[in-house]
């Protein structure tokens, strides 16, 4: 049975490998320039070549973002960069700007995917982009699946949709708050996410200072809840949406692993005729384990309403489980874990295999990388966990597996 | 060089007739325009009246439209008589596509104010729409020298906002009604002010219309006293957006006097303008100048020479590296700290596996353990020469 592609973000080589290991069919990533994540540790040319090679060995594709809206001076080196991307076998580039599309087409034969930043929202617009020569539309997040399906049917273009992750409240590419309030171009990678901030909001500023009359409450009135499309997997199939995209090039390996694992299982289950409520319940529970801003279905079925605003005053969120770290080596005797958070003896952890149920056990002994016993290891360290103290299933755990605390996380804030 | 402005009433039209160099008026029906509040009928009547008085009415269709919205609008627009309109200005390419089929004889004005900050893109739009395209409405994020160049090079008329509110944000979602009640009619507008936590005296005007929510800067764009070079370069139209100074029935208050002042003494006009003014990108757009400083120095130059990265260290005890490529031990020469400081790798460093075995050749993605090396912290890079 035909299946849509699962497309995951890759901030760096580690995330790329995590995404593919946990089931992504393709990854998208940024190079050192021309993209929208200026602060990310984007891929160097060597890393890009390594990433493409790794992906292709594992039958996955790599799409490179060139989705900034460029000024004339930003075009320097773009032609050569496109030729490099083509030479290393990049599968497509993601572009918003018509000028960049023309430059890509002039300098290479790279397939072009139209970025959601271009806000392609309807059939007539799609037909114009088709004439421009793009191969795939990443439609605006304001579009429903049925509408996207209509566009796909009538143009026969590939249509990709965002399926999971954070959402712009604005039409993508139509927010310039950062440009005018912080001197940073949101459409060239400088977005400061002003929509996430709380604001004073009033209809009648009676004084120079706006403040609500009743209390000193500020309102995050422009902050969107996060998208999830787990309930819409059948519709994506039915409408022949070619690629289900996960947002989050700045997010953790924990996020990438869990989201890929969940959507991989959902897509495969639907294709195999094994779609069931229990599976959806599991998926929802897993996705709740990570930091998020409350989930909703975006505009996938009906247009996002005023109840889609994430109004909690904190611009951070809590998942049910805390990320602990990632397995960086597995020897005959030990699992070696790079810790993103501290770990103490006595804590119960879960290691998430690429396929199958989490392996859970209480950590009774911790060892430093030199083999010294410890009761606690701090954040940003490497810990050895003896396989002798693990359940039998743990023997099959491998490098790039994700580790989280088994018990619900305390009510503490995690940066997303 | 001409002026144009938005109109909503015959009073506006009367003022426009009196305004020097103003021959074009922008008509916004609530069906099609972000801030429009004219009914279908009122918009068409106003266009006829404008035409009769020698003005050039332009239909504003500047909303963005998901497929369902475009289909609904298209059905309604089929019943319109578009002939009184001298041109139609659109932002959504879908509107342009719809018009190419339904009203190909009416010239198109394309709003390219977001993105489209390069000549290649602008030339692209000219090529795509060909003779149907009458004008490009350029971004105020373009600096003066680029505007001049584009006016000279592009085979099409160009327009720029001369004075008016700076739109920061356009969302299709209703973000104010949850706090201030729902607007009752299609043409209703909910108005509010938003302010940042750290700048509560900056009142950002916020509107919710049937088409979504809009947030504006608290200062007006104003370049009316800096038009000479643009005029000489062939800038076709300067837009005067006065809607926020008027009301529902007066979108162009005092436009006659304003146009006279632009010609007579634009500096005085700026000084007496009712809102604070600015033109933040007119001289230069430096919105990317921060980016190099946002990035750690190590990423830019050194990552391609990186053999391994420190992922853990414990003072006085050990350092753990994670290799990024296969290499011979002898090629490892230097360490680059996250601070940018470069130092030589101590000659007596011995690389061992996690199992404690001494290594001579190293595989990619391998953990290496050494004795403690002073100053190394996670993020330190191991480099070749």
From TrEMBL, chain A:
It comes from Oscillatoriales cyanobacterium SpSt-418. InterPro entries: Peptidase_U32, RNA/ubiquinone_mod_enzymes. Keywords: Hydrolase, Protease. It comes from the Bacteria. One of its GO terms (molecular function) is peptidase activity. It holds the Pfam family Peptidase_U32. Transmembrane segments: none annotated. This is U32 family peptidase. Belongs to the peptidase U32 family. One of its GO terms (biological process) is proteolysis.
UniProtKB/TrEMBL annotation, chain B:
It comes from the Bacteria. This is Uncharacterized protein. It comes from Oscillatoriales cyanobacterium SpSt-418.
